[in-house]
Specification:
Elements lengths: L1 H8 L1 H8 L3 H4 L12 H13 L7 H14 L8
Helix pairs in contact: 1-2, 4-5
């Protein structure tokens, strides 16, 4: 379910999981995100799953903007 959510919301993840990349050929693909903290990944997933209208805290907002810019997350454009 996470893969589908990422693919629906990001052209980067869509290509990664459906194209010629090694992640698309794996039964259990993993993507290292060395420049992202586990906490910011969880915030991004919370936003994608729950479509949170408001986010508390400037730090969360900044992390979501960074995800949007790096991975083209279309649903984060409205924040």
């Amino acid at each position: 379910m996470v893969l589908q959510t990422l693919m629906l919301n990001s052209p980067v993840f869509y290509q990664m999981f459906s194209g010629a990349f090694k992640e698309a050929k794996s039964d259990r693909p993993t993507v290292p995100l060395p420049d992202k903290s586990m906490e910011s990944v969880m915030w991004m997933l919370d936003f994608l799953y729950h479509k949170l209208d408001t986010m508390t805290g400037m730090v969360r907002y900044i992390h979501l903007i960074l995800f949007r810019l790096k991975y083209g997350l279309t649903s984060l454009i409205s924040i």
